[in-house]
Structure formats: C-alpha cells, structure tokens
Specification:
It contains 18 helices and no strands. By secondary structure, the protein is mainly alpha-helical.
Length: 419
C-alpha cells in the first residue's frame, strides 16, 4: 500500500513533466523538430547504456534503498529546471543534461521497482498488483497532463515541473515507510566470485533468449518502442503547430487520450480470465493497436477527436500488453535473477527508444510530421505478428510454477537455461 500510494503521486508528477519538458523546449526555447527529437533521445538513451550493468547492481543491493536514492536524485535534477528558468539561465543544454541524468536514475528505479514487487506480494497476486499499479499510472496519465496544462498556463512550462519535484519527495517518504524487508540475495553473493564482469551481465540475457516467449516479447517491444518513440516525439509538435492546439490545452487532449489506458487497467484482470493471462499478450498487440492509425488522420477542429480516439486505443493496447507480459516475466523468473532478467528485457525493449527520437527528428524534418506518424503507427502494428507466430499462440495462462531459483541462477550464468 505504501509503494502503491507513493508511486501514484510520483506517476502524476512524472506525467506533468512528460508534457512540460518538451513544451519548455518548443514554447520557451523555440526548439526545432530535430532538437525536440534529440531531447527525447536524451531521456531514453540511459536504457541502452546502463540497463545491463544496472541489473547486476539491483541483484546485489537492497532494492528499496536504490529506489529511494533514485527518487532523491530525480527530485534535485527536475527541480533545477524551474529554478534555472526563474533566474533566466535555462538552456537546451541543461534540458539535455537533466533529461539524461534523470534517465539514468529512472533506469535503476525501474529495474528495482519491477524486481521489488515480488518481494511484497505472493505469486498468485502479481497480475492484480501489477494491474493496480498500472491503474495508478493510467490515472496519472489522465490527470497529469490536464494538471500540467493548467500549471503551464499558470506558471509557464518550466515552472510546471515543480509538481514533479514535490512528487519525488512524497515517493521517498512512502518508501521509507515500508516496514517489510526483502530477503537477502544470498545466491548472488555466493556466486559473485565466479560470475563477475561479462558473465554476470550476460546471465539475464541468457535467460531471456533461451525462453521463446521472453525472446519474442523482447523483439516485439524493441520494434514497437522504436515506433512509439517516433510518434510520441512528434505528437506535441503535431498538436501545437499543425492542429493549432494551444499549449495550455494540449494537456487536456493528452489526458482524454489516457482514458484507454485507464479502461485497460481496470479490465485487465477480467480480460485475462476470458482470453487467458498469457494469450492476452498477443491479442492486445494485434487486436487493439490498429486504433493508432487514426491519429495521423486528425485535422483541426472536430478532427482532433480522431487523435484522441487513436491515442486512447493505443494506450489500451499498451497497458493491457504491459500488465500481461510483466506478470509473465515475474512469474517464470527465479527471484535471484529478477534484477538481471528485468534489466536484460528493458535493455532490449527500451534500447531502441533513443533511436526513435533521432529518427523522428530526421524523418519529421525531411518527409513531414504526418507521414512520419503514419510510418510509426503502421510498423508498430505489423510488429505484433512476431507475437502471433510464436509459442504464445498456443498458450493460455501462466505456468503453474517457475524455475527453481538456485538451479536457474547457476545455469543462467553458464548460458544453459532451457525455456
């Protein structure tokens, strides 16, 4: 409950920054399309650079302590932007540096976060716990942009990020309030003398690539996230400069789009029972993602509704998919390997995101913003075929039990884990 409450507040603050940071670049610093794409890459490039070594760190250190440190660092980093704007010293260089440094903290926090949850809830409650946390994320996506838009109108785009600074302080307090302690990762410590350096980093990758479902899921997410970053990097410019939406109102458009994610979070448990907790992974990718294709059709006036409906459909698909695949990962991976497995998955899945921002900047500047949105939506949907033509097609629910912890860790370090 403390984790859930703290993250709910933090999610809202981060949703404000997700809107305010690029708006600061676009409206305050008059950044070009390429510069906005570069900012998006700065935010996410940390996943490509630090995710794998972060997994080893998460498996060795107390996850709650790491999460507290990451939240404190992000509080200071994000808080530097409104301060710099207040004294008229804000530059694009600072936005890039803060985005990258906060991204490094987010890498550590994200891997710790997914690896810490199984220490707080039992295995049979993982889907429900992930669903509840995702409800908070989607409610934040619903409320945050609207709040952000209001704060942008009241305080300026940079000033709106004060809300995110305060949310990280509340998250730190909530984590400090958790009394239960995770069990020490004794297996990793015992094996540390034999599994140093590259072999230890490769243990998580070995587990992922030898599990056919995890491998295909990672491949799909790598393509999807590349395309999603292309789209998201240009959507604010699309709204402000092509659809002529006022900056203060963009938050309302983005918030309305988040309704799809809220619906997915609320219905994920029921849909998993109907379709199967594993089968829903490929159904969510192929069945609901085509709504994304409505977004490039949007026009000024009432045509903005196409953007909202398309974005809501995309959010529904992403959230339903995320809850299902994260629960599968947490269920099949031994606790002693969770940090490295989650790091490996995120390194593959999110490592393509920085290139999406750069690609968006290049394509948006050369062929235009609307055609780039068409390409990103079409390729993302087609990538769902990777999931359909995989073992997922004949699976329905989560396996009854996971792999033995000690055996899986030792064999993963030797690269011999079998799916």
């Amino acid at each position: 409950m403390f984790l859930w409450a703290g993250q709910t507040v933090s999610f809202i603050g981060s949703s404000v920054t997700l809107l305010a940071l690029p708006l600061t670049a676009v409206v305050t610093l008059h950044a070009s399309t390429f510069q906005v794409g570069l900012l998006s890459s700065a935010i996410t490039s940390a996943w490509l650079i630090f995710a794998l070594p972060a997994g080893s760190l998460v498996d060795r250190l107390p996850k709650r302590t790491l999460m507290i440190g990451c939240d404190a660092a992000r509080m200071i980093l994000i808080g530097s932007i409104p301060f710099a704007a207040l004294v008229h010293m804000l530059t694009l260089i600072q936005l890039y540096l803060v985005a990258f440094a906060a991204g490094v903290a987010t890498v550590l926090f994200g891997i710790s976060y997914q690896s810490y949850l199984p220490a707080l809830v039992s295995r049979e409650h993982l889907v429900e716990a992930n669903g509840k946390l995702q409800v908070s994320q989607e409610m934040a996506d619903l409320a945050g942009p609207g709040l952000g838009g209001g704060l942008v109108g009241l305080l300026s785009a940079a000033g709106a990020m004060i809300a995110d600074t305060l949310s990280y302080a509340i998250s730190v307090a909530s984590l400090l309030s958790i009394r239960s302690r995770e069990l020490p990762n004794s297996t990793v410590k015992r094996d540390s003398s034999q599994a140093r350096g590259l072999r230890e980093l490769m243990a998580g990758l070995s587990f992922v690539f030898r599990d056919a479902v995890l491998r295909r899921t990672a491949e799909y997410c790598a393509i999807f996230n590349l395309c999603a970053c292309m789209g998201v990097s240009l959507e604010l410019i699309f709204l402000v400069r092509i659809l002529n939406v006022r900056p203060a109102y963009t938050g309302l458009v983005v918030a309305a789009s988040a309704l799809g994610g809220v619906m997915a979070s609320v219905t994920s448990r029921s849909l998993s029972r109907i379709f199967g907790s594993v089968r829903i992974i490929w159904i969510s990718a192929l069945g609901f993602a085509p709504a994304w294709l409505l977004m490039p059709l949007a026009r000024q006036g009432w045509g903005i509704l196409l953007f909202i409906v398309g974005s809501a459909g995309r959010s529904f698909s992403i959230v339903l998919f995320t809850i299902a695949q994260v629960s599968y990962r947490q269920a099949v991976c031994p606790r002693m390997l969770l940090g490295r497995m989650n790091a490996a998955m995120r390194w593959i899945m999110w490592g393509t995101i920085p290139f999406g921002g750069l690609l968006a900047g290049v394509l948006g500047s050369t062929i235009g913003i609307r055609p780039t949105l068409w390409i990103s939506a079409g390729v993302a949907w087609a990538a769902g075929l990777l999931l359909f033509f995989s073992p997922l097609r004949v699976m329905r629910d989560l396996p009854e039990s996971g792999v033995d912890d000690l055996h899986a860790v030792r064999t993963a370090d030797r690269g011999k884990v079998e799916a």
